């Protein structure tokens, strides 16, 4: 498989790639195809990964990927790389489709990589092209092995690593036989395979794992044969032998699987194990030498004559004999076998033994071995004889193993049942198995010894035990404690039964006569069956333990039949659980019969159980020691007998005697009790006297019968002699009680008729003097006789005629009594339900109602037939009274009380809510005015509603009629109408509570009106009830007005109180402004106080809008202008605010002039804005409200509520004093230039601190929890001042230090220019030396200038003062420029030191030359100079100029040379001649100048002339 990747293209150089593509176009196409394929793979993989992240990947593919990850140990990313690079996805999908692939197989192993490692040996070449050609010609490719995962069919590539397989079998057509030639390819690694069993239908996405078979073959670490053997044995055989519960019934019950397939697979696995062990053995005769295999017989004889060669062969044969002897010793030695080895191990041993010796025989027949032995035979070596003996032993062992394996092979068919079946089915094959063993013992040549046969029988026994263990433990999946108790006991019994059948079958086979003269089939039964017997003994102990646990668990579940309870039961159960836990919580194997720990634990378990039995028995005996002398003794006796089989309870005979003695005492006790209580017996509850006595006597008889029946029904007690005596005594007591019952019946039958007639002639109703209420007048004798008759009939006893008549009419008496009782209850409840406030109005109606009830107390009796009409008449009156009360109550509750309550909820003030922003003063004024106006209207409206409701109540009471037959009660209310004309609000007095107590008592005790009617005092009260009703509720309205007014005033006062701070937040929002040099608050506290006073007056004046009641008369219209005259204009509060703002403007200088038009428009709006007029009533409740002391007190407190805030306001203004520094001691820009750096920095720092402090200042200051001072405008003003001052100082500072920086740059630039000048002569050296001297002199000054400049601009940057970027770059480069100058100066100095010798030599030469030039100059000046005699003036002047110029040049050289002497430390040379010559030249120059001046003047005169 060839894999392309992006890394392949990056390894080669671009030049080589282009060259190769130009030479080979096919390579270019191949690369293009590779790139397209790689892009396709990448896109497909990204799509698959996106689906995987979204959870949309096919679960079948996900299952396959996970299988590959688990098998190979690769990461998911690496597996998906292999899958997509090799394009395996389509082939994997084909496995899931019908009629497509049936298997998939991946190999993960080392394969040859497609990339080659290049090893070159370059040679020298003449050119680059030839060298490259040489390198290409000498490159060699070395294959590189790399682990890869690839899909294969299993035929082409041998397996050396891991194989993953998935397969599904095709049930439609048979697999071709020629397909099995693929087994010729050796498997040396790991094979992974996938197959499916059915390809007809497509695999579902859910549950597809059930249709696939997958596995892993690791040929490298485990081995091919071992892996296949493990898969067959632990996977397929396990699945076939123990199918899952959801498997099909046909697959579970198929007989061919149990009888043929599983035995065949077992045999095949056994063969594979033998093959694996044999194949790993090495060739004993292969010592790596080939000495005689290629020689002829004659040459062999010649070689036998060589002594050295023969000795070498003898050593060789000796080594072979030694190796063979070690193998032969195994036959003589006793084999070490485990206790669990079975007959299959015996068969495999002899198979491996026979195969081993078969290999040895084959190896002996090899040419090298035969020629070696033949050579020793020719040489007549003693070693040949030893070889012959060894060869005989080999042949014998080979025949023995072959014969034993052949006979035991016949036993394998019968042994399958030992491994595959359970103990129940295993019993069927025991006979054939033992007969086969006897046949082997009889016929076999080598296996007929008692030792080997008994060992084989022991192995059979071992396998039976192992199978039983697996059967009990469900193949290790369960324990004896985790399974159902009945199922595990059945399994244990089956195993025990198998042992019995096994021994019985052995005895049967032993007694059979197979052949004459055969060996006796008789072995040590203890040796053969000892383990199985011990194992079954262990099983028996487990069963016994199970039985004990079940028995006691059942008893504890039933609480020992109720004999053990409470702490004793819990303690016993806890102890039992502990005992059970000592056995159940062990870690050892309970089925291992060789483990003695269980035996000790079992003995301990029995001992503890016995101890628990004794403790429980003692506890029960002690707890129920006294129960035998109680009625429950026989019941507990039965329970004792039920648990006596498990719990050792003693003294049962004594318990029988105690029970019988108790029964005798109980009979005597009942007889004594009867004699004692027969005159006044305890009758049952709700029983009349006679019926109760009879019932008491019958209960005693029943108790005696129950006692005797419980004794006679017990199987032991009824046989005792004491029981016969008990029966006799019971008979005598029963006769006594029967005679008592007959006496009571005789008394009952003798009843007197005249007593009943007196009871029936009573009136229906009566006033009970004790209870002070109206009751039903039914004599108790009537219901008593009815109850007696009822119980007598139920007890089947005779009833007299009088009682029987009453019993027949009991429905009549019950109906009349219930009707009267209901009438009384309804009358009482209806009268008491009338509310206290309206009871005076209902008193006449109550008197009428009592007159209707009165005939029941005077006229009607219990035998009168008009009782129904009477009850109906009274009920109608009560109903009319109830209707009237209901209507009045509805009006009173819904239209009086509810409206009064709603009036209490009216608020006369307006304040900002707790979570909202505070209001301005203007908004507060508008809100208060609006609230007072709306609340006045609302209160007046509701007051009128209350008045209308009261009048409606009065009208209802006046017009109501309870009984038209009685006297008209309207006259009682007509006489007081003249008194209602006065104003109710003028009278604050009310009727005292004691005056109405008589009325209220009549409603609580209405029987007081029966017979007498209303008294004169009550009639007077009723006449004044109407006017009192009006006055009472007028006062209620006034109280409500006082309450709401006080609540509003208190609410406003509390919001402005410093003593009782309110958590609702501030009310007013004030503005703090900057008016240099002060901070002011707008509006002031005095203005706020004035606003609050006027707000309180407005709240108190709301009651002027609530009209007084008119006492039922029509209302007169009112004038709308009255409120305006009394209250004044509605914009008073805003006038106050306007005046406060004007006062502030006059008292403090303004920062900005306000526009005149704006102010005029504002004042015009305030004076001309008209609002709705406040309601005003001519007759109102204002005086009554203002007379209240609490209202007056609250208004006075409201007028002083801002006095305590002045201190906080002063403290607020004091917090802004630190900012006065901004406008105090202000300097001009010129004065600021004189400041130093520290003064600048301190000023800027102070301004920054003020700015930082200003940012931390809150935007709102709360004063007294009621005023919020906004600092927004003040902060804006202060920030502006801080920025102005900071900018001013920063500009001065920047200007000052910018000048100093420019000076430093000028000095540095000038010195750099001088130092950059090339050094050509001593003048240049002198100039540079002067420059270096200046640098050294100014170094300290410059450093003192640069640091402040840097610090100054750092300060400017730190305090965010605008500085040009160019200036900042210059500041940053300033130290660099100065250091650069210092470095250049140092370099120049070093350069001068290097050039010093050259210039010194040149100086000496120049001095020598200068001396000569000086001599020549002096000589020429004396002899050919301007002072020579006879020269014309013109010529003399010209010479003078020449010599003067020459002298100047020499003078400059002299100066230079003298400086050089000083520079190099040479002695100074003086030239006095130059001083004289210079004077001469100066004089001559003056003379000639005067001459020229005169000549020029003369020429000018001549020209003018």
From TrEMBL:
Q: Which residues cross the membrane?
A: none
What Pfam families does the record tag this protein with?
Answer: DHC_N1 (PF08385), DYH2-5-8_CC (PF25007)
Q: Which GO terms describe its cellular component?
A: axonemal dynein complex
Span of the signal peptide: none
What GO terms in the biological process aspect are recorded for it?
Answer: microtubule-based movement
Acidic residues bias locations: 11-21
Q: Where is the Dynein heavy chain tail domain?
A: 312-870
**Highest taxon in the source lineage:** Eukaryota
The UniProt GO MF terms for this protein read: dynein intermediate chain binding; dynein light intermediate chain binding
List residues of the Dynein axonemal heavy chain 2/5/8 coiled-coil domain: 1289-1389
Q: Which InterPro entries match?
A: DHC, DYH2-5-8_CC, Dynein_heavy_tail
Where is the segment annotated Disordered? 1-21, 974-993
Q: Which PANTHER family match?
A: AAA+ ATPASE DOMAIN-CONTAINING PROTEIN (PTHR46532:SF4), MALE FERTILITY FACTOR KL5 (PTHR46532)
Name the protein family: Belongs to the dynein heavy chain family.
Q: What is this protein called?
A: Dynein heavy chain, N-terminal region 1
Q: Which organism is it from?
A: Popillia japonica
């Amino acid at each position: 498989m060839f894999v392309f990747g992006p890394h392949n293209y990056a390894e080669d150089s671009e030049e080589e790639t282009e060259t190769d593509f130009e030479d080979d176009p096919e390579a270019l196409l191949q690369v293009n195809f590779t790139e397209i394929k790689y892009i396709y793979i990448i896109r497909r993989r990204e799509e698959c990964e996106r689906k995987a992240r979204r959870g949309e990947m096919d679960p079948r593919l996900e299952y396959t990927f996970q299988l590959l990850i688990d098998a190979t140990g690769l990461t998911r990313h690496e597996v998906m790389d292999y899958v997509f690079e090799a394009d395996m996805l389509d082939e994997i999908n084909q496995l899931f489709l019908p009629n497509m692939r049936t298997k998939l197989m991946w190999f993960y192993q080392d394969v040859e990589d497609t990339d080659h490692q290049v090893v070159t040996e370059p040679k020298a070449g003449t050119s680059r092209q030839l060298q490259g050609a040489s390198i290409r010609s000498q490159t060699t490719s070395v294959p590189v092995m790399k682990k890869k995962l690839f899909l294969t069919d299993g035929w082409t590539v041998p397996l050396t690593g891991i194989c993953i397989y998935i397969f599904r079998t095709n049930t439609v057509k048979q697999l071709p036989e020629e397909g099995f030639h693929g087994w010729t390819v050796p498997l040396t690694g790991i094979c992974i395979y996938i197959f499916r069993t059915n390809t007809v239908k497509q695999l579902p996405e859910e549950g597809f794992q059930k249709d696939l078979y997958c596995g892993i073959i690791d040929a490298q670490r485990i081995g091919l044969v071992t892996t296949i053997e493990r898969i067959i044995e632990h996977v397929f055989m396990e699945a076939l032998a123990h199918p899952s519960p959801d498997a099909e019934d046909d697959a579970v019950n198929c007989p061919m699987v149990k009888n043929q397939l599983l035995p065949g697979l077992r045999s095949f696995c056994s063969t594979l194990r033998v093959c694996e062990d044999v194949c790993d053995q090495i060739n004993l005769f292969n010592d790596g030498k080939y000495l005689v295999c290629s020689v002829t017989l004659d040459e062999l004889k010649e070689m036998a004559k060589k002594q050295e060669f023969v000795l070498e062969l003898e050593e060789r044969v000796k080594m072979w004999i030694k190796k063979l002897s070690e193998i032969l010793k195994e036959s003589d030695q006793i084999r070490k076998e485990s206790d669990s080895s079975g007959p299959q191990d015996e068969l495999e041993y002899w198979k491996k033994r026979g195969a081993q010796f078969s290999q040895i025989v084959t190896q002996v027949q090899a040419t090298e071995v035969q020629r070696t032995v033949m050579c020793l035979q020719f040489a007549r070596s003693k070693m040949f004889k030893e070889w012959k003996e060894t060869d005989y032993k080999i042949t014998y062992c080979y025949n023995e193993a072959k014969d034993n394996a052949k006979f035991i092979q016949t036993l394998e068919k019968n042994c399958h049942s030992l491994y595959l079946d359970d103990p129940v089915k295993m019993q069927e094959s025991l006979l054939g198995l033992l007969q086969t063993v006897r046949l082997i013992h009889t016929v076999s040549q080598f296996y007929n010894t008692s030792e080997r046969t008994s060992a084989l029988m022991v192995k059979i026994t071992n396998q039976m035990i192992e199978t039983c263990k697996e059967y009990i433990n469900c193949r290790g999946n369960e324990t004896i404690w985790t399974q159902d108790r009945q199922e595990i006991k059945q399994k244990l019994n089956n195993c025990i039964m198998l042992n019995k059948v096994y021994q019985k079958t052995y005895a049967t086979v032993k007694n059979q006569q197979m052949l004459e003269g055969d060996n006796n089939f008789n072995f040590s039964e203890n040796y053969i069956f000892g383990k199985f017997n011990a194992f079954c003994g262990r099983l028996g102990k487990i069963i016994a333990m199970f039985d004990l646990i079940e028995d006691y668990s059942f008893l504890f579940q039933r609480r020992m039949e109720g004999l053990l309870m409470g702490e004793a039961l819990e303690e016993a159960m806890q102890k039992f659980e502990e005992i059970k836990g000592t056995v159940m919580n062990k870690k050892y194997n309970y089925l291992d019969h060789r483990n003695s720990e269980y035996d000790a634990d079992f003995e301990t378990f029995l001992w503890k159980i016995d101890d628990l039995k004794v403790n429980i028995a003692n506890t029960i005996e002690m707890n129920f020691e006294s129960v035998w002398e109680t009625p429950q003794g026989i019941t507990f006796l039965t329970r004792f007998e039920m648990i006596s089989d498990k719990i050792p309870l003693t003294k049962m005979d004594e318990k029988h005697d105690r029970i019988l003695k108790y029964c005798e005492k109980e009979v005597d006790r009942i007889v004594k009790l009867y004699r004692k209580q027969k005159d006044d017996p305890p009758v049952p509850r709700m029983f009349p006297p006679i019926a109760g006595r009879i019932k008491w006597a019958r209960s005693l008889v029943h108790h005696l019968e129950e006692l005797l029946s419980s004794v006679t029904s017990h199987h032991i007690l009824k046989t005792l002699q004491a029981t016969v005596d008990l029966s006799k005594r019971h008979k005598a007591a029963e006769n006594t009680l029967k005679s008592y019952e007959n006496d009571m019946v005789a008394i009952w039958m003798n009843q007197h008729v005249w007593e009943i007639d007196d009871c029936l002639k009573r009136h229906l109703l009566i006033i009970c003097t004790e209870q002070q209420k109206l009751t039903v007048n039914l004599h108790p004798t009537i219901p008593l006789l009815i109850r007696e008759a009822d119980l007598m009939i139920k007890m089947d006893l005779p009833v007299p005629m009088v009682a029987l008549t009453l019993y027949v009419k009991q429905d009549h008496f019950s109906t009349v009594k219930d009707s009267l009782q209901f009438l009384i209850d309804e009358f009482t409840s209806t009268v008491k339900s009338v509310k206290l406030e309206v009871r005076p109005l209902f008193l006449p109606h109550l008197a009428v109602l009592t007159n209707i009830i009165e005939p029941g107390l005077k006229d009607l009796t219990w035998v009168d037939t008009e009782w129904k009409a009477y009850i109906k008449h009274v009920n109608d009156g009560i109903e009319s009274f109830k209707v009237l009360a209901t209507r009045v109550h509805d009006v009173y509750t819904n239209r009086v009380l509810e409206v009064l309550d709603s009036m209490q909820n009216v608020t006369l003030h307006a304040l900002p809510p707790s979570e909202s922003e505070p209001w301005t003063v203007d908004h507060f004024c508008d809100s208060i005015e609006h609230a007072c106006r709306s609340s006045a209207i609302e209160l007046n409206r509701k007051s009128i509603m209350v008045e209308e409701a009261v009048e409606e109540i009065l009208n209802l009471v006046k017009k109501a009629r309870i009984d038209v037959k009685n006297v008209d009660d309207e006259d009682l209310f007509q006489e007081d109408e003249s008194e209602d004309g006065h104003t109710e609000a003028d009278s604050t007095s009310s009727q005292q509570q004691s005056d109405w107590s008589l009325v209220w008592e009549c409603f609580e005790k209405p029987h007081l009106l029966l017979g007498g009617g209303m008294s004169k005092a009550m009639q007077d009260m009723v006449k004044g009830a109407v006017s009192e009703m009006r006055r009472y509720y007028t006062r209620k309205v006034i109280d409500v007005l006082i309450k709401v007014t006080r609540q509003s005033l208190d609410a406003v006062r509390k919001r402005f109180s410093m003593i009782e701070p309110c958590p609702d937040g501030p009310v007013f929002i004030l503005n703090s402004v900057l008016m240099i040099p002060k901070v002011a608050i707008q509006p002031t506290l005095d203005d706020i106080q004035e606003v609050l006073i006027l707000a309180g007056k407005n709240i108190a004046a709301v009651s002027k809008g609530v009209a007084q009641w008119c006492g039922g008369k029509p209302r007169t219209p009112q004038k709308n202008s009255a409120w305006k005259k009394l209250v004044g204009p509605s914009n008073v509060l805003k006038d106050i605010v306007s005046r406060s703002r004007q006062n502030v403007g006059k008292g403090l200088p303004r920062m900005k002039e306000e526009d005149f038009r704006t102010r005029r428009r504002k004042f015009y709006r305030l004076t001309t804005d008209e609002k709705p007029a406040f309601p005003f009533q001519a007759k109102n409740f204002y005086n009554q409200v203002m007379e209240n002391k609490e209202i007056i007190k609250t208004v006075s407190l409201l007028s002083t509520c801002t006095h305590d805030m002045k201190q906080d306001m002063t403290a607020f203004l004091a917090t802004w004093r630190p900012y006065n520094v901004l406008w105090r001691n202000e300097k001009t820009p010129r004065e600021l230039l004189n400041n130093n750096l520290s003064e600048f920095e301190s000023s800027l720092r102070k301004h920054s601190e003020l700015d930082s402090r200003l940012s931390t200042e809150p935007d709102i200051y709360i004063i007294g929890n009621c005023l919020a001072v906004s600092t927004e405008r003040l902060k804006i003003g202060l920030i502006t001042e801080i920025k102005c001052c900071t900018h001013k100082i920063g500009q001065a500072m920047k200007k000052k230090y910018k000048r100093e920086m420019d000076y430093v740059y000028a000095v540095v630039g000038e010195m750099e220019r001088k130092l950059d000048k090339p050094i050509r002569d001593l003048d240049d050296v002198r100039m540079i030396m002067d420059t270096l001297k200046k640098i050294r002199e100014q170094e300290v000054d410059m450093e003192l200038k640069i640091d402040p400049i840097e610090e100054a601009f750092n300060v400017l940057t730190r305090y965010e003062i605008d500085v040009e970027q160019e200036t900042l770059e210059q500041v940053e480069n300033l130290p660099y420029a100065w250091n650069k100058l210092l470095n250049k100066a140092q370099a120049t100095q070093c350069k001068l030191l290097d050039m010093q010798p050259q210039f010194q030599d040149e100086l000496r030469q120049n001095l020598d030359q200068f001396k000569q030039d000086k001599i020549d100059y002096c000589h020429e000046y004396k002899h050919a100079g301007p002072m020579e005699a006879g020269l014309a003036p013109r010529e003399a002047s010209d010479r003078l100029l020449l010599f003067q110029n020459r002298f100047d040049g020499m003078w400059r050289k002299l100066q230079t040379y003298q400086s050089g002497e000083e520079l190099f430390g040479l002695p100074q040379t003086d030239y006095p001649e130059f001083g004289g010559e210079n004077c001469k030249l100066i004089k001559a120059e003056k003379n000639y100048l005067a001459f020229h001046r005169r000549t020029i003047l003369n020429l000018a005169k001549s020209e003018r002339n």
